[in-house]
Every structure is written in C-alpha cells, then in structure tokens.
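Notebook entry, structure prediction.
Reason for the run: the old model in the group folder had no record of what sequence produced it. Starting over properly, with the input documented here first.
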Amino acid sequence: MELASPDTVQRVVTCYSVFDKYFPTTGLWDYTEGIYNDDPSTPYEQAKLNQFDYLLDQIECGPGVRVLEVGCGNGTLLDRMRERGATAVGITITPDQVRVCRARGHDVRLMDIMAMDPALHGSFDAIVANGPIEHFVQPEHAEAGEQDAIYARMFDIFHRLLDPASTIRKVVNTTVHFAQRPDPAHLVRHPLAWRPMSDNFHYCMLVRSFGGYYPVDGQLEGAAKGRFELIREVDGTMDYYHTSEEWLRRIRRAMISPAALRIAARSIPLMLRQPMQYVTMFTCMLLSCSWNWQFRGANPPAKLWRQTWRYLPAD
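New structure, fully documented this time:
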C-alpha cells in the first residue's frame, strides 16, 4: 500500500513550494498553529513559540535527546530543538525545504515516512509530527477503506523508529480531525460539482489545494492500539482559528504590498507547472477562505487535537 499516488505527492509538494514563496514576505517561515492560552491578543510569534515549547516538553526534549521530526518544513522547530541541545533529524517530501534546512545546519532528509530507511530503526528517543498526518490519507484511500490501515502502518513505523531501551519513547502530534466525516466519494469530485460555499465545495477546495483527508475522533487511537497508548489529548481548535485568521490578514496585506509583483514573478515556474492547483490554492486561501472556514463558528467542521503517545513494548 502506497501513501499516495505521484500526482498527490506532487500536489503536497507544490502546496508547500507555493507557501514558501509567499509566506516569508509576511514574516511566516512555518505553517504551525500557535497556542494563545485563551488570549487572542497574543502575538502570533509568541503563540508559535508556546506551541513549540509545548510539543518539546511533551517529549522531554533536552540535551542529547534524539528526536525525529516528521514533516519538518523550513526547520523552525528544529531550531528550537537545537537550542535545547537535542540531536534532531528532520524529514520532508519537499526538496526546497531540504535545501533551506540544510543551509541552516540541520540534518534533514528528503524522505517519505512510509518509506523510512530501516537503518534508522531504533535510532530515536522521541518523534514529533506537527501537522503532516493530515496529508497521509487521501479521499481515494478512505473511499477504498484503507484509512485505518494507513494510520496503523504509520504507528508501526513510529514504533520501529523508537529505541526500545530509551527512557522517553514518546510521540507527539498535532492533527486536524473531521468533526463529522464527509463522504470521501464526494471529495474526489470537482469543487464546482457542489453549490458554492457548501460544505462539500469547501472540502473539495481543500483537497485540490493541499491534498489530504482527515481522521475522526478516536481513529488514531484505534490505529495505535498495541503499539502506543494515548496519554494526553488537548483541543487546539480555537488556537488554529486564531492562527488561520492571522495568516489570512498577513497574506492579504502581502498581496497588495509593493513586493507582491516580485513574489508573483518568483512563482512563475510553479504557475506554469501546476496552473490549476496554483489558482485553486489562492481561491481557497483568499476568496472562498475554505481553510479558515473549517475552524470558524460555534461548531466548526474540523478540530485540532494535540496528542501525546507512550510507546508500548512489543508483544
């Protein structure tokens, strides 16, 4: 079973390549939610550091601790690990991010978690997956009934990567979940097959822009059974709401700034390679606001869970 088709992998790579062209002009070098501690006036930069420290505290990250970050982006969390004296390895499927991270002195590899080098088995005390799990399953996987098997395989790989002799042996993840699971067969269709601004329209915009199909509450816990025990779960949905609204404000300001034309010029190769995804992404982010939609309202369509897992010895 493959994680995704080459077209889907390319969709995820293109998504982050586009982000990496635009977001730095807004002061954003990563795509993580912050922790606002119920104070929306907290600056995003501080909220982001709160999130980093929460994640690293969960895995007891300190001097000499060996950490694998799955989906390491441009290395900002790896920076925080280095400040704590940890020995960190990052993996990503985006070549541009590998180059950025290596230029910052990090050990980062172009690698899919589902195709990890067996030589790395037993090499880590802890694993951080800050957001990538949302891309691991696609609607076609869910439609074929493969979603649980993919998550179970992920936890099996995590289990193999951790050192059984370590005193830490923890995994921490932040993952968007569906509040109510949409029919995956609906999400493989074109967004315009649905009434504009309907739930299915927004979901299809998200799939075509970023690639992914979320788990529902309890699904990861079921997939981890026998390998990991869920020892902490924190609802970060409101934090992701505040973060997404701040991203939207910054991106809109950047689009009308003098730098906008320079940014667009740098993005021409991406536009030529993936024109439909490029257009869909900006429609999704700036016009339909489908990304923000999923966290808005009293009962938003999606939730963000921060989860901490403890390794269980193999039978």
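Summary: The first helix runs from residue 6 to 22.
The old model has been moved to the deprecated folder.
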